Records
---
Amino acid sequence: MKMMTLAHLQKIKTKGLKSFLPHKVRIAVGLGSCGIAAGAEGVYNVFHEEAKKNTLDMSITKTGCLGFCGEEPLVNVSRPRTPLVIYRQVTEDDARAIVSQIMGNKLYDKKVFCKIEEMENFIQPEGIKYGTGYADIPHFYEIPFYKKQKKIVLRESGLISPESIDEYIAVGGYANALKVITSMSPDEILKVVGDAGLRGRGGAGFPTATKWGIARKSKSDKKYIICNADEGDPGAYMNRNEMESDPHMLIEGMVIGAFAIGSDEGIIYVRTEYPLAIERLKIALEQARAYGLLGKNSSNGFNFDIHIVCGAGAFVCGEETALIASIEGESGRPRPRPPFPAVSGLNGKPTIINNVETWCNIPVIMAKGAEWFSATGTSGSKGTKVFSLVGKVSRVGLVEVPMGITLKEVIYEIGGGGIKGKKIKAVQTGGPSGGCIPASLFDLSVDYESLQKTGSIMGSGGMVVMDENTCMVDITKYFLSFTREESCGKCIPCRRGLEHMLGILEDISVGKGKMSQIDELKELASVVKSASLCGLGQTAPNPVLTTLRYFRDEYEAHIRDHKCPAGVCKELISYSIDAESCTGCHACVRVCPTGATSGEKKEVHTIDKKKCIKCSACYETCKFNAVKVD
Amino acid sequence: MGTTLDKIIEEYQGKPGEIISVLEKIQEVYGYLPQEVLKEVSEKLQVHLSQLFSLATFYSAFTLKPRGEHIVHVCLGTACHVRGAPKIVDELSRLLGIKPSDTTEDMKFTLETVRCIGCCSLAPVLKVDKDIYGYNTMDKMPKILANYKG
Amino acid sequence: MATIVINGKKHEAREGEIAFQVLKREGIDIPSLCYLEGLSPYGSCRLCMVEVKAGGRPGLTTSCNLTASEGLEIETETPQVVQVRKVLLELYLAEAPGSKKIQELAKKYGVATTRFTHIDTSAKGDRCVLCGLCVRVCGEILNVGAIHYAGRGTRTSINTPWYETSSVCIGCGACEYVCPADAIDIVDQDDERIMETWHKTTLKLKECAESMKRFATERVVDIVYAKNQELLKDLKDLSPDARRRKKAAQFIFKPKDK
């Protein structure tokens, strides 16, 4: 298969633009995992049914995620020379109405979210223009959720079809891979990536060009490049979205990287819990092969292909050496480093492992140059980062922000602050390897160094917001039980050290803790950090250390006063009904699983503490705030 | 079934690194990893049986026991945890009468906890087979289970 | 040859040596459980940690995978190293309360008791420290693979598949030989060798044709004999003692030239 040429690519681009910006109505339904879970498949089917029923010539396509997951299903509708209109929380009935209005040449005016007049497409020099108009519909970047975002990696997610290579090419895709392979040397590529200041987006933030340089220098008949798509941090799903919404961006990044390093074999290691991402990647790989962008290429002598390896449910396989062991057919037990994978990795050969998002940044860096890329961010942290903003925050979803934005801006301006008027207490970054940053530090800049100074880490991008009803002892117990469960068990500090630490936290959360145990916790944390074999163990104590540092008062309340201030730890709380507020509506009795709540209708109800299992169903149900946590 | 196994073994002959894919395919076919099947794999693909057992017990995706007709996965990711996932687990445990990782006696349901399905915006999340349910509360549980009882 | 500094004194390291090998060779005390000459560094026991002062990434690191390159300076008894070692040994005492060897090792470094309780959450018994040597010797060196890790994390144990008697074990005893914690029990009883720890896997012992002594399992003898049937035929039927006597007899009764 001859490698694709720039001339051929131009032809496909023209074809792709006809699909992406057709001379007819185009309806794109957000069909990422979140959209599907919210009912988007049904909406998509209705559009097809209605189009068929009315023999309408419309383009109905799948698209990825626009990031505002809390508003799914999201649907965008475009017509020639008019702005793209985005609808939110679209139901099947809305879909029927949208079509009906289209038939009448009108715009359905319910559930309208925002419009896009010109796509901020960072690869395509000419830009993508939809059209101007609809003065009373707010623009995409006027929406508070999107205002402070800067979509570079997610520039086309939710707009192009993730299952069409032609559309990817239409918006500038693969042009840079071809340009790079035909006119640049590996060293020139490394210089651009180095000057851009790209750091690994998987968590450690290691300078990407430095890592590539080591593998490039290593003399070997075989070199591998691997995409680490084993995104295991609970609460983080950036990579899932990147693969589901724009898989070709990842492939293009790997093609460029393979050329720079001198590799002919790429592997994408995806966790098995992401079936849609796997499916979309498979389709994309087949399409790339069909166009000669992957596989044996006769021109330039550059042969490179990618295959997928699935994980099998082990968080530790996100660690480089464990990931390699897994690909080699072994259990994911990490191996001592040195030797580092860049020197001796998969099958003993030089191997470069980078996170999905790191690879996704490569095409845009090569397209726009190092100076452009490094103009965003701080002196030490260049570019943007995609975060999954989740938890006790009003607006939940995937946000892409420039490095250097403050936590406050992300949580309050983008995220809209707390829910149900609750006060935000902390934000957890870096998953189980990270830490809890208190609200008092929200003026901090989001960059690698600042987050590290707090005792947390940037991590892969999970950002979980916690409010006054989150118990920091409980949250720490949660993270430790996660790392304990996912520990491979090879080395004793992680295998048993974490378990003993968890035992102490369990004692504290049931009111059996002693102040001396806090010292023991710190001592164990220090040993586990310095003696563990791999990053899982070395960072597992971080949630403990940060909560002890910033929320010691909560620990002391549990130990000294046998109280859980947030009202979470079951053994330390009890529920009762406030006689003044209770209206006797009987709602709590209907939801109580053990019959602990009782009372006559329209009379004050009570809770039998002996029967109460503290499931909090009554607390959540009561509309009059009559159920109190003691 | 015998020929399906033969096909899998044939496909992976001479590819020792891909043994995990073999186990994944076997579990797809049988619903779990039967001892007899693994013994055959060990023989035919020249992989130590102890290695296969080691892999089967290391990776959470594998199970050595047959599972129920419907697998109920409750997500215990961070976002789901802060939004009440533990209570969902407790409620399902109570309704089904089993602990997580166990299967009901009538082999209808298996209850599993999973760390992050990746739908954090819909927390707390629950998955039954391929169906994802979001924004779960305890009172929604009986209705969801009823969808699969028929 | 490279010069490295250990605890302030210069030592010569041979080509390709790792720091741990230099320490051992120079008689400098350093504990370890999972290191075995001939096997690549495994990094599971964490006891051979030293502190790097110069010539490498500063801080604590295991010495079993630290190249002894020119300019390396390490310390084996800094307060941090001693502290980490002590806590690790406390963890080991709680992990394997039944192992005398582990108790001796801990005592040597001043750790007689442990704060931590023994949590029996796995099928591995109270002597195994999960160093992995038995697995690696059985699997990588002998290519028998009768045992392997089972489970993950705190429920890890080293076991036979499905915790049943092994059909591939050859009863060579290499697992017991390399175990640093004396966690493996093998009993020779009459004409059988019982691998107690491996769920009483039982193998027949080979009887010497001459002395009737039982010197190895039939399986081991068969495997060795199969390597070269002509050259090794005495190995098949005679115990080591009987072989020595036979060989000696050849010399004594060598015919003289008349």
---
Amino acid sequence: MLSDDAIQRKCGDHVLELIVISTLNGVLFGMLLFLLSSGLTIIFSMLGVLNFAHASFYMLGAFFGFQITKWIGFWPALIIAPLLVGAIGMAVERYGLRNTHKHGHVAELLLTFGLAYVIEEMVQLVWGKGPMDFRVPAALDFPAFTIFSTNYPAYKMFMLLVSVAIFIVLLVVLKRTRIGLIVQAALTHPHMVGHLGHNVGQIFMLVFGVGSALAAVAGVIAGPALVTQSDMALLLGPILFVVVVVGGLGSLPGAFFASLLIGLVQTFAVSMNGSLASLFGPLDPGIGPSLLTDVWNVTIAQIAPILPYVLLVLILIVRPMGLMGTRET
Amino acid sequence: MTELASSTTRQAGPAPFADKLRFYGIWIAAAVALVVLPMIFSSGGSLTTFSLIGISIIFALSYNILLGQTGLLSFGHAVYYGLGGFLALHGMNLIISREWPIPLPFVPLIGGLFGLIFAMILGWVSTKRAGTVFAMISLGVGELVASSALILRSFFGGEAGITTNRTDLPPFFGYTFGPQIQIYYLIAFWVLVCTIAMYALTRTPLGRICNAVRDNPERVEFIGYSPHVVRYLAFCFAGFFAGIAGSLAAINFEIANSAYLGIVQSGVVLFATFIGGVAYFFGPILGAIFVTYLQLGLTDLTAVWQLYFGVIFIGIVMFAPGGIAGLIMMHRPLYRAGTLSMIMPAYLVALLPTLALACGVILLIETVSRYLVHAGDDTTLHLLGIPFDTSQPLTWAITAVLLIGGFYVARMTWRGIAAAWDRAATAARDKGYAA
């Protein structure tokens, strides 16, 4: 028999554990989102086109990573898969988007939309529709540490580390190097950069390639942790756009905060089981199934998938330019 | 656009009676065609196909109010189609249980009305901005509604959806709308009504100011209109007609499920509209016919029909952004000037290599598909009646030759077309027909 005091302490421990684990997972998911949204944001700022196929590059990264892991091993896959996807991204920019540019932004957006569609179909063609058996590499398959009673896997810490490392590298490259300076200049004044003798087309291609490669890195490291399946692009893609719009189109810091925000919101929501019924007590059983009972009984975990979109609509009503956006459109 | 302008100025000239006859003749011919069509192709399969095409025509035309006429690229138009369908279905069940004297032909109005109501609610936020932001919001709202549909089970019926029985509604002049032929005529009637209504909408001042908002919103603001309000009105009309299309689909299938609302459905209508051509009113009609037919035809032939879909779409976006209608209308000035014959030889020359290239692409997709997906079963595939064994290197070699050789030769002949086109267009311009 535990005393009341002990029970209370145990409950408190449980809540604390939930908070710590969810925060870790949330930050992890947020950093993963940022790996994707940073590329998307930079590409949007430079080319003015929101790349619908960005999540597809993430998916390609995961599948290439899976295949190369099967052939050679995980560590080479972590390098080769992003390089391959980066090359594909550059080809898409060079032969697809650049030719479509003259038809306007809608045509470009539609091209990437069609591309997302085709990539998904091709992945299904090659790998089928089922989930892949993409395992965590043996070297990282151990619990990193134990918080309360939960073992936190080392692989998740590795994911966090990789995303943070890439984030820092990206920041340094953009802020401290010459190429980063040119990229920053080309974001706002592409013509002026062109007049100064830089090959803007080449910069665009490079940036598109790097953005796609970053998405692929996210894919390779997320592949073993999440499910590697042909619908992963379709699942993540819309959330990615929510991140970019909520953060403010074209704002890199905005994308960072929005990624973390949505990562945390979703992770916390999934681990919460509360509903209106548990808060206010169940409805009179005499009331048959209706919209009211649906709303009353739905748990926060169940509405987790729609929370990002609710956030999107709220942000657009309250602050249409996004959290840190500077431009209206 | 110049060709349109010049043709209207010409029409404003003499012989108004002939023009009127031609204008109304098109609509009368369309009505006659809709009536006669099931008498020529009377099998059950073709009736179902026509019904689906009809629904798809209304849906695509409603989408073009947004994309073609107002310049709003929506990734969530199926929301209004699906909600219209669900509400029509609930309406039908309510009519059956309460025994209201409302026959089936009026049910699409319920769906349309609710499509309009939801568009009015969700549209105000969505249409604040055009362009990329609008596209993203439409995607977000679409996902929001589609995910909510899975949560609100009592209304949307979860994954299974909700069903009805259309024959339980009160009969309409003795018709119970059990057989498909009656449903076909019901859909055909609504297709005609909606098409006329949407065409009329493009001729109203609202339709015109929509075009202006698409082309130059800033200038529209200068002359005292609010682009936001104009976009909102267009959005509401589009929601109304999408709701009608959705309720016709619900009547046709007697079931509505959450797939009606999803991104896939929104993607299909975008494909249909864009492949058909957004710049002309009849473009989405062509696109709806083409895409629906392709959908039904290809599913029987190949397991990877969606891939063909995507490839065709990308091809249209990159090489013919005017869609099928744009390709046809390009030839109009040449036809009028009588210089069309100048490019025909170039077309004929290009035909064979282009077909070879297309065969190469098809062979590649099918070979890979057989090789990887159905590796265990039959490896032989039939293309144009020729059997290809996908496990043989010869098939792969043929594919490579068709693909690479076809591409190089076809590209040469395409340049020939471009040159011939220039000559024909110049000749047409010399005769006073802008091309």
---
Amino acid sequence: MNSESKLRQQEQQVQSEESLHAQTSTEFATAEELLRHDAAQIEVPGAVADRLNESIAKEPKPVRTWWRRFVSGD
Amino acid sequence: MPPNVVRRELVEEKASSAVAWNCPEFGAIYEAHSQCIYYLALRLMGDPTQAQDATHDVFLKAYRKMGSFRGESGIRTWLYRITINHCQNLNQSWHKRNMFSNADDAVWETAVGSGENPLRVLEVKELGERIQRTLDSLSEEYRILLLLVADERLSYEEVGQLTEQTADAVRGKLHRARKSFASAFSKFS
């Protein structure tokens, strides 16, 4: 391997490392931006919806409130 | 709030769900707002298991009280109010003061979306833990303020309603809360 190809290999390695750095580090201007980013990574576990649905099934049927009429379009 | 806004808030963001809701209208509300409620509970409680319980309890309370909700504030604002009260009550309870958190690594990992690249999960988990430590080091007032303002759908007026202060006071305190957060966050690197 001549010196030119060694140099090219080194340059490629540096470029690769810089690219990785760019992918894994993100700067946030404010705390809210960071929290928004954090929130976007969080999913609600599906078990919560299942459990809530079961709990609702045990509840007495609610009176027909304005929001139910509104959503159903009656 | 104008009816068309309420309707949009209830229906527009309805996401596909594997759950066959017993009450589809309420299911639509859950689908539209559960993520932000779970996130707020998670960061206020600092424990995914407790956040899951809190999210369940908040929506169950909302279901029971829907008859008394008149639409004077947005549904999301109303749900946030229930969440803040619920989490504050739990945080002040005897159990919270006297028992160790049962959050462990496995539980934290379930708080992150499934199907992720393991390295990505690690990165998210580490960042999440750092954010949690930072928030825990702040006063409750700053913590709630930052978490609410991070929701772009809430106006400063609505954040003010939730934190019982004016929008101008929110702006003033937000500046100090940001500085406190940045200072603490740099210490937990």
---
Amino acid sequence: MSSTPSQTVGPFLAIGLPWDEGPVADPDGIRVYGRVLDGAGEPVPDALVETWQPEPATFARCATDDDGRWHVVVPRTPYVAVHVFARGLLRHLTTRICFDETTIPDTVPIDRRETLLPEEADDGYRFDIRIQGDRETVFFDV
Amino acid sequence: MTTYSGDPPYDFPDYKSTALRHPKQPLIQVGPERGGPALGHLRPGELCNDLTKDDPLGERITVTGRLLDSDGRPIADSLIEIWQANAAGRYRHKSDNWPAPLDPNFQGGGRAVTDSEGRYEFVTIKPGPYPWGNHDNAWRPAHIHFSLMGRTFDSRLVTQMYFPGDPLFAYDPIFNSVRDPKLRELMVSRFSMDTSQENWALAYEFDIVVDRMPWE
């Protein structure tokens, strides 16, 4: 059977998808935060970031705010799988936050590997998602 | 597993918002992700599959169907989330500036979990079409946004359900971003007289198919 095609979440995803406890999957976990930015370097205020870790099975979800900011609180595992949804994205994008550099797939070009590495900060780890342009985040063919 | 060829392209100039929101670098091959959240157990917020509890204005409808994988097997205990405009085509959202009336009795979001046969049901009102700024005289066909968790993280899907025979189909770049007309039809619900309920609601049926597990 053919899969149902994807369509954009549109600008009003906040009516249906976020929930209050969505970003905090593990209260004892680490805080990972960042911004979603478009090809002009502008924040994307109508995006949604979802994270998944198989062990321990952990799912988190956070809509971006007016400045394109998102955050999740999740256990620290070698990497965190990420989906990004937004108005203007006809299908979501998939990337990884790699705490362990060895979890960067070999298929990723050397000069783009750094886009998958979170930056350690005082209040957690920063991971900006650049949909297009300078230092564009690596997205996977899933 | 590769991106399903029936999905729309990331770069689709007719839909102007894709211009600065599509990757220009090629997508990179990666192995399948292990497992995924069905969220049947997680129940984010309160599950409510009846969006008409407060008696909103509009045409009451039921939307029912099954969540299946691409082998045709039902996906049980999986979260389905919907959101939509009200009967006048207005969303309850601070960024919706279309001056159609808000309905104080309609919030516009719902959640359900599929049963053991992959079935779901929503009771809602038929959303209205509405204008948007994409091009001159641009109007979106009436639609309900659907979010599906599937079986795995890789089979995650967000789509839109349309209504049969909408005269706006020919003019909508988002609908037509799916290039194959047969695949576009998979996003159009079926009207069902058989399951419409006397003196209560018209019925639409919408089955959703997500990718099978890649390692099977």
